[in-house]
Every structure is written in structure tokens, then in C-alpha cells.
Amino acid sequence: MGEQKLKTVPVLPWMRSPVDVNLFEECPLHLLPCLDSRLKVALQNMGISSLFPVQVAVWQEAIGPGAFERDLCIKSPTGSGKTLAYALPIVQMLSTRAVKCLRALVVLPTRDLAFQVKEVFAAIAPAVGLSVGLAVGQSSIADEISELINRPKLEAGICYDPEDLSPELQSSVDILVATPGRLMDHINNTKGFTLEHLCYLVVDETDRMLREAYQSWLPTMLQLTRSNDESFYPRALDVIPSTFNSLKTIRRFGVERGFKGKPSPRLVKMVLSATLTQDPSKLVQLDLHHPLFLTTGQKRYQFPEKLESYKLICESKLKPMYLVALLQNLGGEKCIVFTSSVESTHRLCTLLNFFDDLQIKIMEYSGLQRQSVRSKTLKAFREGDIQVLVSSDAMTRGMDVEGVRNVINYDMPAYIKTYIHRAGRTARAGQTGRCFTLLNEDGVRRFTKLLQKADNKSCPVYSIPSSSVESLRSIYTSALEKLKERVGLETSRKHKIGFKSSRARKENERNHHSKK
Ligand SMILES: Nc1ncnc2c1ncn2[C@@H]1O[C@H](COP(=O)(O)OP(=O)(O)OP(=O)(O)O)[C@@H](O)[C@H]1O
């Protein structure tokens, strides 16, 4: 008991006295202090009439006399509205800005997440005259530069010349939503791209962002945005990559272009996740200023209030049949099926589509596919043209698709954090939702232990009558045959492509040598 208690105590001193988001209540927009009336209308147009508790808690810290005095670390369940919790105060704070320049940057791990967050900003920022940009690499770098930097398109170059900061190169956006790779491209190569005016940095899905280095984007950002008085202490310099070109973007002594005579504001950071890490060695990388921890309740991990969890126990070899029977039970409700890898996602989706008469539209979504294919699938899923998405963990974090009533773990997740993020694709924004996990008898103990790491929510057995499973046997057998055939075809196609490209490579090499 004592040992268990020790494990749940946050390690960093500032994490020991958090603000409990549970103590806040939803707040109708007309009661929200200081809310710009134009933003109120924009929110109403989004169908929002009150702010969720985490949004009220962040608003209280961000707006008012002590505005953003401290950096904010926010841990709140999936679907609780963290995006608007940071977007709204940032837009309100920037609503009085006079000169357009890049003042807020939101960094996210994937393109689809960045698109999603950009949409939230785009729904409110224009109401107060702010522009939002996206740097994720979905278009050519030249096109992206022309969106972000104000200059004639023909001059959009990617060659950075530190001596040539022509006055007409200005940011076209006040707020930028970016993935780390493309952000680094702009930092290193885009003429006119500068972080010297940055006031707000948001790191969403922080624990995922801290797990990978993503071309050292974080130490680079911190170095570039450190104000000059702090840069006497060269803490991050030794980890900055040598391609580092934009030293000119480091904040200047107390003055900023367009704001002569005014002191440069401290860069405010907001970091968020439903499963925010407590690991000091990770959090220290963020170089937080006097951080304030906002969290929901006492437990290490929390599920959304209206999430129901179920386990479905079956023999491993019968899993596809149980899955189909479950999908039939769910009667075409929107559903995400998670598997453990991109390969099994592809195989399972192909197999399900070979079940004749299923009357459910099923597609796959995984990191194995091209971004354009994934985006198209996601759009169809959002619009209800498909009902079931079979997905690898590419869909696990942050994705918000309206109307997803069920999540199915076809393969049991290895970590509680993965379970939380997967399950969190349903039961969002106070809605109900169900998460089913398919297990064999051997997996039950491991699964129960896994759930105990969270708030020990009950997870009853969901039973499917064996007759409805048995009735699928012959269709399953023929679907399996078709799958084998398809896999064979795909394998030989892959070999052919591999053979062709290796032959082309050899020919190229031969030509190259003969030219020499
Ligand atoms: N005040 C509000 N009123 C009604 N709906 C809201 C409100 N705030 C957010 N929402 C909706 O709630 C859903 C979840 O919001 P959001 O994606 O920001 O959650 P999240 O906490 O970031 O989740 P995750 O941890 O999974 O990323 C979205 O569909 C959003 O439009």
C-alpha cells in the first residue's frame, strides 16, 4: 500500500500542488470574464455555448491581471477540450496586437492532428483579425513559404541569407500550427521566417513530443526564443545542430521590430496531454518558467466520465469472427478498430472486406499509406461515408471524429497510455462511448493489471452468443481463402517492383560508370 502510494506522488515539487480542474464548472459564455464579444460570436457559430472545466481553469490563469504569469502544464482526459483551452486565451491575448508577426506557435506530432488544431484556430482567430498558418509539409516548401511569408511568389526561395533581411519579408500569419520536421525546415532555410516575436509556444501531446527528438526541434526552439538576458547562460547551445542558420531570430535586447521601446515579453509555454509525463528528466527539456500544473483529480490517469470499457474473451484464432459479430451487434455505428501494427491493419481490413453481406463500409488508416490516401479516408470517415476505420496507432492520439461511438482493441495495447488514448477516440466532449478489448483467456490477467494503472474502472465481460459467431464460419473460411490469394498477389507485386527498381538502379550505375 505504502509503496503504491509512493508511486503516485508526483516527483517534481510544482507537481505536488496542482490546480484541480475538477473544482471548476462549465461556464456559459456570457459569464466568462473579459471574453471579447467577437470571439463569443465565433464560439456560438461553432455551436459552443459554454466552456468546459479545463477551458475555464486555463482561462482563469491566462486572462486577467496576472495574464500567463506562469507556464502551464495541463493534464486532462481525452476529449475534455484541451485544444480550445489553449486556442481561446491565445487568440484573445493577441486580439489587440497592432503589427502582424508570428506570435504563437503550436507544435504537434502528426499532420492530421495539425490540420485539426488549425481548424479550431481558424474558427475563432479571423473574428479578431488574426491569421493562422499551417506548416506540415502537405504542399511543396515553396507553396508553404508563400503562405507564411509576405512577398511575391516568384521570390519565394528557400535559401537563407542572414545578411539579407529585406524589410518586405514579413510573416503572413500571427499563429502557426506546425509539425516539428517542417518547422525545422523553415527555421533553417526560409528567408524571413523568424521566431523573434514569439509570445506563445504550445506543445500539444507533450509526452509523445518529448519521446522523439524530431531533429532537435525543442532545443533549437528554446535557444531561438530565449531572451538576451537569459542567453548569458549557454545551456542548450551544445545540443543545437550545426546546420543552425537562423541565429538572427534570437530575441533582441528589450526591443522588437514594430515594438520599439517596449520590453520583449517572456515566451509563455503551454504543454498538454491526457497522459502528461511526470518524469523530471523529460519535463526539464521544456525549460518551463515557474510552471503551474493543472490536472483532473488525484489519479495518475483518468478516463472520460462516460466511457464504458468491456472485455470480449475469445480464442485467438476466432478473433476475426468475434470482431465481425461485434460489428454486426453495433449495427453500423461509427467505430475505430485498433490493431498492433500497420501490417495487421492492412491484413485485417482486407479480410473484413471479404466478408460478404456485411453491409458495413470499412477502410484502413495507417502509417503505411501515403498522407493523401490517409487524409481522404479520414474525410470519408468524418462525413460518415464509411462506418469502420481499421487503424494502427496512427489514429491513437488526439484525433477528434464526431460520432465515434465505439473503439475496439482488436489487439490489446501494451501500455496503459496507449489504452487511454485509443479509448479516448470515443466518449468525447461529455458524450457516451464504449471501448471493447478482444482477449484470449491468457490475456485477461495482463489486461486487468494494465487497467489497474488507471483509475481502476470496472471492465465487465461483453458476451456475444456463440450462435451468431458460428453462423459466420463458412463466410469466414471463404474470406480467409480470398485473403491468402490477395496476400500472395501483393507479395509477388512487391517482389516485381523491388526487382524492377533494383534492375533500374544497376542500369543507372552502369550508365554512370560508362559516362565517367
Ligand atoms: N466548450 C465546448 N463545448 C462543446 N464542445 C466542445 C467544447 N470544447 C471542445 N468541444 C469539443 O470537444 C471535442 C474534444 O475536444 P479536443 O479535441 O480539444 O479534446 P482534447 O482534450 O484535446 O482530447 P485529446 O486528449 O484526445 O486530444 C471536440 O469535438 C470539440 O469540438
UniProtKB/TrEMBL annotation:
One of its GO terms (molecular function) is ATP binding. Its EC number is 3.6.4.13. Residues 504-516 have a biased composition (Basic and acidic residues). Pfam families: DEAD, Helicase_C. The Q motif is unique to and characteristic of the DEAD box family of RNA helicases and controls ATP binding and hydrolysis. RNA helicase. This is ATP-dependent RNA helicase.
